[in-house]
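In response to reviewer comment 3 from the previous cycle, which asked for concrete evidence that the modeling workflow produces usable outputs, we include below a single protein chain processed end to end. The sequence was submitted unchanged, and the resulting structure tokens are shown without manual editing.
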Amino acid sequence: MDKARTLEKGARSERRTMRLLKRQGYNVMRSPRSPFDVIGFNTLSIILVQVKTNYWPPTREMTQMRNFPTPSNTIKLIHRWRDGASAPDVRYV
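The workflow returned the following structure tokens.
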């Protein structure tokens, strides 16, 4: 798959995660300058999501996400969108 198609597929997965979080009552935004792709927040919590398509992050990336400093009310997740799936596989970081 060429680079442009790969980037579009990743962006599509991020948009799917953002729609999912919005339906759960979060305000959402992209976060391109951190280890996480999407930030969601409401009056009670912050949710940081790394979005992947078809694979889980490698060990180095997992370590970076675990060590990313956050307030105590933050939830760190990975959403893995597999081809053809209607919902992501979810793991806590």
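Helices lie at 3-23, 59-67. We consider this sufficient to address the reviewer's concern, and the full set will be provided in the supplementary archive.
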